[in-house]
Design brief:
The protein is of the alpha+beta class. 37% of the residues lie in helices and 24% in strands.
């Protein structure tokens, strides 16, 4: 069998090698802007190379994180907007890395699709590159794979792995948290990238959930309707990219006043905050210190979703929490304000009652 015949056979099986080559050429410019001086080589190698300058560190620890975007991709497909989920992908990885104080160094992506559309893949990678620029990390490589027969023609899914570095004696986490520490909330940009199975169930119902891609024609039309409470279309509000806090958190960590960070993802506020609060202490967020953005009220109202479910599913307007020394509140708020991150004092850490078994909770009512 000739090489040409073999190529034709592979296309007949649903894999278009030429489309993959076109996609690589279209994404090359985006990858080039998501770089760092330590990156060795260029796009197209079998592995990404990164020259870690160990002379900069006393005892470096490498941190790693893997994540995806989840069913938010259904909305990207419905609206044919694919760069924003690329930013989401980076945010979900790098904002987990920075929680322990690690500086994100590089990221690799994985794009699986039923049929490779070069322009769509390039749009996704453009978003990933933008996210990497915002985080200060390099995009050193990735993989785009066609899965004909396993995924629908228009289906795709995203995942990424990131690596960061932190000094061993500067790792942040529950070991540093003390009674009296202050909780500084950083505003989310919206729903971010968690809870979209509930979003689709609330807004589009069972009929659309069973439609190809997860959203049927009626749901697609609803996404394009301007919602007065949101000041934009429902789709634009929901596709707003996840805020990337990496550089802001690193700037805070450099002050020496931060004891821990909590990235508010799946599980909501209390569950994620509890992950950085040690036994014997309890962190209490005061609901009266903020009002959740309108998108959360819309979701709660349309789906008659109980507050407990809202708070266990969504970020409710807080994307990251910094646990800082008791006297560092003003300094922390000033630094975040100067960096353009809306933030506020939201609560404190205190000694827990014996046998409480609870390390994080919310109190009071929203404004």
């Amino acid at each position: 069998m000739t090489a040409d015949a073999g190529g034709a056979a592979y296309r007949a099986a649903g894999v278009d090698v030429a489309a993959g080559e076109r996609a690589v050429e279209l994404m090359r410019g985006h990858v080039a802007r998501a770089t760092r001086p330590e990156v060795v080589g260029s796009l197209g190698g079998f592995a990404g190379l990164f020259a870690l300058d160990t002379s900069r560190y006393r005892k470096p620890l490498l941190a790693s994180s893997t994540d995806g975007v989840g069913t938010k991709i259904a909305l990207a497909r419905a609206l044919d907007v694919h760069d924003t989920v690329g930013i989401d992908l980076v945010a979900m990885v790098v904002d987990d890395l920075v929680v322990c104080g690690a500086e994100p160094l590089f990221l690799l992506d994985y794009i699986a699709c039923g049929s490779l559309d070069p322009s769509r893949v390039a749009s996704i990678v453009a978003g990933i590159a933008t996210g990497c620029e915002q985080a200060g990390c390099a995009l050193v490589g990735g993989e785009t794979a066609e899965h004909p027969g396993l995924m629908g023609v228009d289906d795709y899914d995203l995942a990424a792995t990131g690596v960061g570095v932190v000094e061993a004696d500067e790792v942040l986490g529950p070991e540093r948290v003390r009674a009296g520490d202050a909780l500084i909330a950083m505003a989310s940009s919206g729903v971010h990238s968690n809870g979209f199975s509930l979003v689709r169930h609330v807004l589009f119902g069972a009929a659309d959930e069973n439609a190809p891609g997860g959203i049927g024609p009626d749901g697609q039309a609803a996404l394009r309707v301007i919602e007065p409470a949101l000041g934009t279309t429902l789709g634009a509000a929901l596709l707003t990219p996840t805020r990337i806090y990496a550089k802001d958190c690193l700037a805070l960590a450099a002050t020496g006043q931060v004891h821990a960070f909590s990235h508010i993802t799946g599980g909501g506020l209390a569950a994620n905050l509890a992950r950085v609060i040690p036994a014997g202490l309890v962190a209490t967020l005061d609901r009266s210190t903020w009002t959740p953005p309108p998108i959360f009220g819309l979701l709660a109202e349309r789906g008659a979703v109980p507050q407990s479910d809202m708070e266990h599913t969504f970020n409710q307007g807080i994307g990251m929490i910094a646990v800082v020394a008791p006297g560092a509140v003003d300094e922390t708020l000033a630094l975040l304000g100067a960096r353009g991150v809306p933030a506020w004092f939201a609560g404190r850490v205190a000694a827990a009652e014996p046998e409480a078994g609870l390390t994080a909770r919310l109190s009071g009512a929203h404004q």
